[in-house]
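Backbone shape codes
____________________
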Amino acid sequence: MATAFPEPIFVIMESQAMTRLFRNLEWKPSTVSWASFVLMGFIVGGIGLTGTAQVVSYLEERLTAHTNEHNREIAYSLLSKFQSTLASDAEEVSVALLNAIADYKAFGFRIFVLDRSNQTIIADSGTLLISPRPIMDSWLASATRIDGSSISLTREVGAVRALGEDLHPMIIWLQEMEIPEPGRLVLGVGKDHKSLMDFMGNLHGNLDSVLLLTYFLIALLGYYAMRSIGRIYERRLEMRLRERTQELNAAHDEVLNKTRLATIGQTASVLAHEMRNPLASIKLALISLKSSVHYDDREIRRMGLIMGEVDRLDELLSKTLDYVRPVKLSVNPVDMDELFTNVIKQQEPLMEEKDLQINHRSCRDGAMMHVDQAQMHQAMLNILKNAIEASPPGGEIFSSLQREDDELILEISNGGEAPDEEVLQRAFEPFFTTKPKGTGLGLGLVKRVVEEHGGTVTLSANAGTGTSLKLAFPLRKM
């Protein structure tokens, strides 16, 4: 037996089903645009067709009124002539009526005279009458008012309409005559309205076609304009989203770097406190043993190896502390060219060992900046040492310091094998190194110091010429 659900429950189930249906529909931007285009086409087309019909109806009404006015003027102009003719002899009456009717027939008007007492037509320019013709047997039997309501020609005057023998619509003006007795005879002036109706029909069709085509083009252009604007807006949103994503990634990286720096700083502080004193004691003990006891060559090499490792551990602690030490800008401006020149002089012995030449181009426009002199010196020392270590023996290092617009640019290039893409991307990461005994903190320190001064670091590989490192510092007013 089927379960009958109450009506409210059925309505709720139907509403939920419709909600799920609309949720499952995928309203893509193109779908929405096409739906809007079709809806706009229906709305604009409906409004356009209705407006065209109103315009044509108004024009038809005005032209009909103009035809009535014209017919009335002709009726008044014929009235005096007909009435004077009717007052003369009977033989002259028929001749005069036929002459007057013939004159106006040439201009496309149909002139007729009704006898209301007998309900007949006694004269008609459109038909040769041998004797009076009953109205109900003539084309005037179809006569109505302009608005289509029925009439009686035995009483009606003014504007009416009827169908001719050829079924052409006629606009007619009926005017009472005072002779031979008031109201007995009625003068009618008609004009074939078919050409005007055909013209209005053609006009209506042409206007509809032109307006529909125009509205279609407008709607189509509007659709493409909206789609273009929508796509521009979408691209702007995507661009803003990318910018916000990049900002979030940069902020995330900054937080990670600061967290990493804080961790490294805490670790370095603990290591420096807990390890430097034992390392110093080990080194002193080894120096004392080496000087007090005679050892053979094998033992001396082992002691040298131990002292080298102690020095390497001490260097690692020092570089780690340098890496996390906060940047403090100098109160007095520092000559960056002089600072880098001192670094070059400091590394001359190492360059002589590898038979390297350095070609440095100094800045002639002044290179004064407020910097942390100690850390900037260490950063310059690190990049020059890296260039020396990466250069083949007998090679040449190129360096330059120059002003470009509102920046001070320090660039160092060395020969040797160009680094691969992974090295270029990870070169500034802490503890990343390609050297067997490297600490991986040198370039990381350079990047941190430069960025703390508001600058940027760029590492690039030059095919055939090795590696190029570029430091760019913004010049501020001192």
